[in-house]
Design a protein that fits this description.
Blueprint (H helix, E strand, L loop, with lengths): L1 E2 L4 H16 L11 H19 L1 H5 L5 E6 L2 E8 L2 H12 L6 E8 H19 L3 E6 L2 E7 L3 H12 L6 E7 L20 E3 L5 E10 L4 E12 L15 E9 L3 E4 L3 E4 L3 H4 L10 E2 L16 E4 H36 L4
Parallel strand pairs: 1-4, 3-4, 6-7, 8-13, 9-15
Antiparallel strand pairs: 2-3, 5-6, 8-9, 9-10, 10-11, 12-13, 14-15
Helix pairs in contact: 5-6
Amino acid sequence: MLSTQTTQANLAEISRARCRDRSKPSVDKGKAHRKSDNVDSSITERIDRALWNDRVLRSTDYWKIDVAVKAGIVSLSGNVMSITNQQRTVDAVRSVPGVQEIISHLVSDDHLIRNVACALGEIEHSYGVKFFTGATNGVVVVTGEVSSTHIRILAEKCAASIPGVRGVINAVRSPGIDLQAEDQRFLQPSIGEQIYYRDGPSVTVKKVIINPNNLRVTAMVVLGQYSNSRQDPRFIMYGEAHTSERLIVIPMSAVRSLTKSSGFLKVDSTEGVSYSDFNISDFVAPGEDWTPPDPYCPDDVLFPVKFVESMNQTENAQSLKQLEMIENSQRENAKIVITEHGIR
């Protein structure tokens, strides 16, 4: 077995490989596969059964483990709850006939908690605060109490920057923040997933809007059939309205629940027509060096322009403040030098 340390670089490569596989056209069932492809497919199926047959993995991490097989070499990626489960996964794969080698990029929550806590230590030391961290399948929860929203956001961004983190739930208390009023759920709608209004009609997820500070989905861009006059979309089902496709932006706060294959909204379709149309000028694509959280590809994700502008303003303000502190320090040092020379 070859176990590879998890870094941002190899996580980025895993993401690129997953996205390449997703973009490949499907092969017609009538066409013959190469022998190696058949062997790898058979190995993949046996690995899936082996993971499912492990009672612990079936009840915890089974759905979070991604398996790729090529020429008998098995690559494992995803998030598991513990180092013990990480080893159980490798052992289950090793038991499958035909496996030549195992390359594990699995990230355990134990590992994430340790790395996040270590990174947050610098903020704790600088501001005299204390944070507490937990994680479940790559979703990190940060708690504690600080004196300002600035420190709170610093902690959130710090945790989200650790390789393997899928998202951050910020439960840090600070003045002016009402944690009970915030939607702290971690929701990841799949691209192409059908999302159903409470009264039946559905829309299809095309893109997700992500907060880059915490990697959480804040809204989704969906495609649906609506009347041009924004009449009741239920009329569409009975051919009583002229319809057209519309891209609209639905906030995650409107989502009641998500499953592996579909999602359900809290609102009826009559309320859905009031959501804003998708306007590309309101959003910006992530940079090429940004790795999206599993299971998304770069083309799936957008950032809100207003949010990015706010981040840039904050970073510029911090840079100016640091520059001002340096200049003040230099002036104080100059005063000391002049005083030492007897000039007042």
